[in-house]
Structures
1.
Amino acid sequence: MLNNPLLTAFQNARGDSNGYAGWCIRKDLCKRYAWAVPDDAAIRALARKPLVEIGAGTGYWAHLVAGAGGDVVAYDIKPYTNHWCGGTYYPIHEGGPEMAQRHKDRTLFLCWPPYDEPMATDALLAYEGSTVAYVGEGWMGCTGNLEFYDLLTELYKDTEKIRIPRWDGMHDTLTFWIRK
């Protein structure tokens, strides 16, 4: 079992996860760690192949993947200064979606890309590799944009789904996609 303080805090908060108190707990933990809650199964699955993470935020997922023996290169447009992130867990290089183009030998990893913004679409368009790992909600959810989902399903076939712990009202999942 991995040392995963976010998962522990999530499990401890489950009794208080409804209403305003739950929203405050989630907001604090998302800022401190990550928007999605990883568990051992998700981290082990991600550690199977080298990753390039775009939009790494605090680097929390990358930290856990590296701790499980995985190889991660992580990027964010504003490492350690993003107003959504309040922690630092892994070395993050400065760079945006275009950095995916440099790592076609790695799995593209996108974890909770910003809602209704082009970041995930731009990363997918830049990426020339064969595998995408995505954590977020599906089409019409609160991650990515519609163009991203259209492009993902047009260019890739989903091959694996791993249910991860979810905050109330969230429907995020880890999915793996292979280029058609």
2.
Amino acid sequence: MKAKLIDRQNIITDHFTWNDDMTKHGMASEFDAEYKEYVESRPPDDAPQGLYYVPYYKVKKGKIHQLWELPDLSINELKRIKIQQIREYDNSSAVNGFLIEFKSNGNTVNTVEAWINREERNALRSRFEAEIFAGKQDTVLWYNGIAIPLSLQNAPSIMIALELYAAACYDCTQQHESNINSFTELGKDQIMSYDNTTGYPQKPTFSIEL
């Protein structure tokens, strides 16, 4: 493929057959520069999460090469990208989850990862309180169509443990955002390399005897 260099960020490529003299003449007269062989490339794969390489073009050894660079973003743009990344991680299964170990005779036969959001936790607490008041001994937690049996003696403590876990994750996320917002103009490199996956508590594990 042939191309003309317009400026550092733009080229025009020849997508037509060069055997067509009229097309060749028409495109060649559109810009003063000569068509040169165009060397395409792929962007590097080492961009910090949330950032993407953008192309630019340079003539090297008589050919137009496609090169790549990270955009020079402002400190506020970098903060916005990083905080979005922090919130996406906070809402992901890497944070939002707990483990249920199903046991038989003391041996684990299956492990399921689940999550109950705040609204669901509030609804379950009300249900468990009503069932306990009614004198029931057992209840059930439905998750993805699976009935998980629970003793009402243990169910409230599970809800408390999940609430404490969720609160600790929230505090960790807020601390990460606070850390990012505290960086000044000299902190661009720190923002790009900041690891927002650290500090979160270990996911709770609950055992249920079948």
3.
Amino acid sequence: MIVGYHLTIGAYGFWLPNDPRGSWSSFVGAYELYLAAGRAIKTDERRSLARNVHDRDLRRAGKQNLQREPLKFNGIQARAIARGFERYFARTRREVWACAIMPDHVHLVVGRSRISIEQLSIQLKAAGTRQMTLEGCHPCGSAPDARGRFPKCFVRGEWSVFLEEDAVDRTIQYVKNNPIRQGYKRQKWSFVRPRSL
């Protein structure tokens, strides 16, 4: 029985649809990106592909052909995203068992609820973006469009894995250790609560 989800949300430029390791996309929307790195490489794999051996030069070529630089959240932006998440989770009362806000992606382990994991992803991206905008630290804050809106800082879609009981604790540990593996300190967010059985 599914008891929760591992949700990964990427910042703009984090994981391209034509990443040589595969992606969860079936279409490359930008012609320049298609020319530089080829067609989308769709996979249904649910385990992490991050450590798979791949053509790093091809991946870099793709990233050099994005419309703008890939985003990297700094510490101030990560805290703003967390405050946006905190407000969202306080309002919805959804269970959150782990969260890691990395420079170019976010990991969460959440319990099941009435809304789909895809809808949760959309709402969390909106909450994080809204909070960065309110705090004046949106990563594209100096380049609004003609209507005063900033470019999106999160990618379209998400990566999610259904978690059965036997995978929850292992996934929580994976998310908690993610910052440490990348040379950052362990993160502690007020909206994350221990899982109650």
4.
Amino acid sequence: MGGLAITRVDHLSDEDISALSRILIGVVNAGASVGFVPPLGLDDATAYWQGVLKPGCVLLIARRDGAIVGTGQLDLAMRANGRTRAEVCKVLVDADAQGQGIGKALMAALEVEAREEGRSLLHLDTSTNDKSNRLYLAMGYTAAGTIPNWAVDADGVRHATTFYYKVLDE
């Protein structure tokens, strides 16, 4: 994975938002279940990235040779009784860069960030039929269960979602 750098960011430039919007549109329009339904337009994708950096959000960006090729987020639980956990969100890899280990590298970097934030439990959810399920299992996540009809696609078809968790070594 020569030239890949993953960094935590606390500010997004217009150029970053444009690149992240392109990636989000690509993965959503290819069928990924990440909170949007296809066809996702540029205005909605841009609005998402413009508002993403808020208290409790850890945002990582993966760049290869300076170009953004992926991203991942932690949504830190902020309530007093939940400050040991975080949700893994929006782990996205550009279509042209998929299958090169970038998703795995982002997940590993999110685990490092979670530990640095004092979090010892990560959780996430994904469409039960999504190929990402293999990655989460391979990285030591445990399937906690599946809920039917959790999300709908652009045609209104309901799909099951599987929830995962991982207890981080302390």
